[in-house]
C-alpha cells in the first residue's frame, strides 16, 4: 500500500492546547469542564478582554454556577489560579502544568465536583488505608481491554448488574471504565459488584464516581469485598435493607420514606431485623411495598412493648389463642328484597303443623 501524502491548504484561526492537557488532564475531566478550559484558552487568543462568568455561561449554554465549578476544578488541578476582590471573582491566571509530575502515573486521580462528594468516605474524602498492605502499581489504560473481554461471561454479567443498579444503558465509556478495573487492575467481579451497590446506595449512579472510588481502594491495596467493607464507611445500610426488602433497591428513597425509616430506627428504636420482619409481613398481607402499612405494624408493636423477634412470636401465639376461644358467630345473611312485580306483596306467616292437620283431615 502506497504512502499517503498529507497537505494542508487551510490555515485556521488556531488555539494552542498543550499535549499534557490532552494526555493527562482532559481524559479524567468532565466534558463540561473541558469546554470551559478551552473557552479560556480561546479567549486568551483574543486578548482576554470583556470576559465574564455570565458571558462564558451564555456562550457554553451553562449556568454561572457550572462555570464557577469548572474554574475551581481546574484550580485544584493547578492549571489556573483564581483571584478575588472580596468574595467576587475578578482574576483568572492560566498556569503551566506542574512539572509533568502526573505523567509518570499515566492516570490522573482527578476529583470532579460530583466526585468531591467522596467526603461521604470519612472526613478526609478518601477511604482509610488498609494497614500492612503496599499500594499496587496502577497501569495505563489499554484501549483494547474491552475488546479482550468480549467472550468473558463474568465480565458481561458485571456489566448487566451495573446497568440494573444504574437504571440506564451503559455507554462505551462506562464499559471501558469497568474493563480497566476488571482486566487491568484485576479487581474481581464480586468486588466491583459490591462497589457498584455501595455507590448507588450512597446516591451516586455515576460510573465516573464508581471508578474514582475503585482507584482509591486500589491505591490502598484493598482487593476483596471484606477489605472494602472495612475500608468504606458504613452506608445507610438500614435504609438500603428496607428498600431491598420492598424490591425498591434500584432507586433512592423519597424524603418522606427516608423520614419514616429514620423514625423506625431512631425514634422507635427497632433493630433492622424487626423492621425487615414488618416489611415481610407487609408484602405477605398486601403483596406490594407500603411504608404506611409497615409503619402501622411497627407502631402497634411499639405500643405493645414488642422489641425482639421472640416478642413477635409470643404476640402471634396470644392472638391465635384468643381467636380460638372466641365462639363462632353464624349470622344469617339477609339479602334485601327488591320491590318489583314478583316481590311487591305482603309476606304471610304460616303454622305448618296446623296446615298439615287440615290437609290430612
How would you explain this protein's 3D organization?
The chain has 361 residues and is mostly helical. Among the domains are: 19-94, Winged helix-like DNA-binding domain superfamily/Winged helix DNA-binding domain (Arc Repressor Mutant, subunit A, Orthogonal Bundle); 143-235, no CATH class; 238-316, Arc Repressor Mutant, subunit A (Orthogonal Bundle). It is 50% helix and 4% strand. The protein has helices at residues 19-25, 31-45, 53-60, 64-76, 145-148, 153-166, 172-184, 189-201, 207-219, 225-231, 237-245, 255-267, 272-286, 291-303, 309-325, 352-359, and strands at 80-85, 88-94. It has a two-stranded antiparallel ribbon with strand order 1-2. A hairpin with a 2-residue loop joins strand 1 and strand 2. Helix 8 packs across helix 9. Residues 100-133 and 330-335 have low confidence and may be disordered.
List the defining traits of the structure above:
4% strand, Arc Repressor Mutant, subunit A, 2 strands, mainly alpha, 16 helices, 50% helix, two-stranded antiparallel ribbon, 361 residues, elongated, single chain
Number of strands: 2
Side-by-side strand order of the widest sheet:
1-2
Q: What Rg, in angstroms, do the CA atoms define?
A: 34 Å
- Mean pLDDT, to the nearest integer, reads 77
Strand residue percentage: under 5%
Brief summary:
With 361 residues, the protein is mainly alpha-helical. It has 16 helices and 2 strands.
Layout of helices and strands, plus pairs?
Blueprint: H1 19-25, H2 31-45, H3 53-60, H4 64-76, E1 80-85, E2 88-94, H5 145-148, H6 153-166, H7 172-184, H8 189-201, H9 207-219, H10 225-231, H11 237-245, H12 255-267, H13 272-286, H14 291-303, H15 309-325, H16 352-359
Antiparallel strand pairs: 1-2
Helix pairs in contact: 2-4, 3-4, 6-8, 7-9, 8-9, 11-13, 13-14
Amino acid at each position: 500500500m502506497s504512502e499517503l501524502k498529507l497537505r494542508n491548504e487551510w490555515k485556521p484561526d488556531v488555539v494552542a492546547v498543550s499535549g499534557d492537557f490532552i494526555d493527562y488532564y482532559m481524559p479524567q475531566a468532565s466534558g463540561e469542564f473541558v469546554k470551559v478550559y478551552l473557552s479560556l484558552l480561546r479567549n486568551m487568543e483574543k486578548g482576554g478582554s470583556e470576559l465574564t462568568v455570565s458571558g462564558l455561561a451564555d456562550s457554553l449554554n451553562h449556568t454561572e454556577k457550572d462555570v464557577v465549578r469548572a474554574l475551581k476544578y481546574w484550580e485544584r488541578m493547578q492549571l489556573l489560579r483564581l483571584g478575588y476582590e472580596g468574595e467576587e471573582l475578578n482574576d483568572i491566571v492560566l498556569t503551566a502544568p506542574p512539572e509533568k509530575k502526573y505523567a509518570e502515573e499515566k492516570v490522573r486521580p482527578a476529583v470532579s465536583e460530583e466526585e468531591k462528594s467522596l467526603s461521604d468516605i470519612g472526613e478526609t474524602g478518601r477511604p482509610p488505608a488498609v494497614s500492612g498492605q503496599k499500594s499496587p502499581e496502577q497501569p495505563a489504560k489499554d484501549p483494547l481491554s474491552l475488546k479482550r473481554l468480549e467472550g468473558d461471561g463474568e465480565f458481561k454479567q458485571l456489566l448487566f448488574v451495573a446497568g440494573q443498579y444504574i437504571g440506564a444503558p451503559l455507554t462505551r465509556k462506562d464499559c471501558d471504565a469497568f474493563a480497566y478495573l476488571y482486566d487491568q487492575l484485576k479487581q474481581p467481579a464480586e468486588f466491583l459488584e459490591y462497589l457498584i451497590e455501595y455507590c448507588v446506595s450512597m446516591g451516586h449512579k455515576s460510573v465516573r464516581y464508581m471508578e474514582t472510588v475503585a482507584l482509591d481502594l486500589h491505591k490502598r491495596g484493598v482487593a476483596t469485598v471484606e477489605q472494602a467493607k472495612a475500608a468504606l464507611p458504613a452506608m445507610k445500610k438500614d435504609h438500603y435493607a428496607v428498600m431491598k426488602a420492598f424490591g425498591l433497591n434500584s432507586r433512592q428513597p423519597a424524603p418522606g420514606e427516608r423520614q419514616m425509616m429514620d423514625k423506625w430506627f431512631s425514634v422507635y428504636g427497632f433493630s433492622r431485623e424487626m423492621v425487615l420482619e414488618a416489611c415481610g409481613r407487609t408484602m405477605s398481607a398486601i403483596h406490594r411495598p407500603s411504608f404506611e402499612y409497615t409503619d402501622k405494624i411497627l407502631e402497634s408493636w411499639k405500643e405493645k412493648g414488642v422489641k425482639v423477634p421472640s416478642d413477635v412470636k409470643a404476640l402471634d401465639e396470644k392472638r391465635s389463642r384468643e381467636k380460638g376461644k372466641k365462639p363462632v358467630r353464624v349470622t344469617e345473611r339477609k339479602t334485601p328484597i327488591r320491590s318489583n312485580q314478583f316481590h311487591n306483596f305482603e309476606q304471610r306467616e304460616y303454622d305448618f303443623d296446623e296446615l298439615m292437620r287440615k290437609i290430612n283431615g
